[in-house]
Amino acid sequence: MYLILPYVIRLRSQFCSISSILILAGMFFIFWPTFAQTKPFIVVLDPGHGGKDPGNLGNGFKEKEIVLDVSKQVGALLSDQGVKVIYTRTTDIFIELYDRAPIANKADADLFVSIHCDSHNSQAFGAGTFVMGLSKSDKNLNTAKKENEVIFLEENYQERYKGFDPSAPESLIGLTLLQEEYLNQSIRLAGIIQKNLVQNLNRKDRSVRQDVFWVLHHSYMPSVLIELGFLTNNTEGPYLNSKKGRKEMAQEIAKSILEYKSDIDFIDKLKVHDSDQYNDNSIVNAKIDSTIQFKVQISASSRKLATKPYNFNGLKSISREKKMGLFRYFYGETKDYSTAKELQKKAVSYGYEQAYIVAFKDGKRVSLKEVLNKNSE
Question: Rounded to two decimals, what is the model's pTM?
Answer without folding.
Answer: 0.64
